[in-house]
Amino acid sequence: MEERRTALRLAAAALGLALTTAAWACTPPVEGTRLESARHVLAYKLPDVAVGRHFALEVSACAKSGRAPETLKVDARMPAHGHGMNYAATVKAVGTGQWRAEGLLFHMPGGWEVVFELRSGGISDVLRSSFEVAEGALEFSPEERKKILSHGPWPPKLSRDASNRVSGRIEAVAFGERLFHEPRLSGTGTVHCASCHVPAREWQDGRPRGMGLEEGDRNTQGLMNVRFQRWFGWDGAGDSLWAQSIRPLLDEREMASSASDVARLLREDPSYRRGYERVFEKPPPSDDQALLADAGKALAAFQETLVTGRTPFDEFRDSLERNDAEGMQRYPAAAKRGLRIFVGKGNCSVCHFGPQFTNGEFADTGVPFFKPRGAKAGVDSGRHQGIRRLRENAFNLLGRFNDDPARATATGTRHVELQHRNFGEFRVPGLRNVARTAPYMHNGRLATLRDVVLFYSNLNEERLHADGEKILRPLRLSGGEVADLLAFLETLTEGAAQKPQ
Q1: Which one of 1.10.287.180, 3.30.830.10, 1.10.760.10, 3.40.50.12280 gives the CATH number of domain 142-155+309-380+424-490?
Q2: Secondary structure (DSSP) of 177-232
Q3: Confidence of residue 108 (pLDDT cuts 50, 70, 90)
Q4: Which of 166, 198, 302, 355 could cross-link to 176 by cystine, CB 3.0-4.6 Å?
């Protein structure tokens, strides 16, 4: 892979000192760029530097007259932005008048100023050298590369849901889409699935908490890529997409319907009856629950078609895999730096794993699990209650409505274990198109994607379940790192603009 090294162009020596070929009053032992103060001459040797990568400086100095320099401090800043580096350099003496400064890092391109403070006889001389740091290609280590490649390829190969006999059938998709927009599926005839899962809003509603017939306790999850989930809902009380599609129909605060209400519509409305017979190749059964299950399966067949497209990240990921330097160059430098945080310091990819950017399981994020004011109860126990509801659900994959005779689809349901640590855990959402799905978290507590990044940066560990997984730690991100991580997350959205480097 061709590598573009960061170009460092000497702009000016500070303090009005011109760099010339004139004789110096003394000669520092290190060859390199030279700076001069009233008392000292300093030289430093700068290696090739890449934005976002630590580097070291070799520095030496001598006295024009009088006492030799005793100590050295090294720092760097961006005058135009009013901030310095995110890291403090460590300076080690390696000989008389010689030092090695380690741990420096330019975390963004632009104008940088390296500041050297020489001290002798209790007096400091400050010398400055300014540079323009270009956006070079950010190299990833073999481990980083492996993690990045694990987030693809996209889109994945599609397969039918064996538990749903009409999964993938064109007739079922059309029938399910019609049901999705049918208000008569609700007990009042006033709301439908699309009331909360709004197509123009990434199939969610943009509200902190969902609003059906009443306001609920949780944020409405979008439906894009829902076909790839293993568990459904924030608490995983659904183990199939068709079972999950039934749940809001029966919830008194969402659609307040019943098996008999749904069955009546499918049997008595001539158009729906014909549609049912075309999809299921039989008349509607007399068993209301069986007919409700079939309605859920048609709804699921439609939702299976909702798959996100390719993103700027996918283009970069594939370019990385085939060592396409030109393709990688088109990915924004800030997004590359944010990606390094995501797979490295941030440890985000532990939970947001794979092509869907989720491990499909549940975690305690430190978000309070008390329900919002006005809710019927005070605590949302999340996955703990979800497992209980899953086991009690007549439509789960261990039940009679599963179309998979071998029940191979029910392995998770059969073996899931209720544990105390499940209290307050919620499903890890996928991150594709995440820039379009605000607000965030299970209760819609965080309004913007930036709020989410800052939440994890300043995480209150005291809010984490004492018996839970010890994964999360405050990230303590700098302002630049926050911006970089946001730049990366925005490239997970299809159609997101990306500027070349």
Answers
A1: 1.10.760.10
A2: HHHHT-GGGSSSSS--HHHHSBGGGTTB-SSSS-BSSSB-SSPPPP-TTGGG-SSB
A3: confident
A4: 302
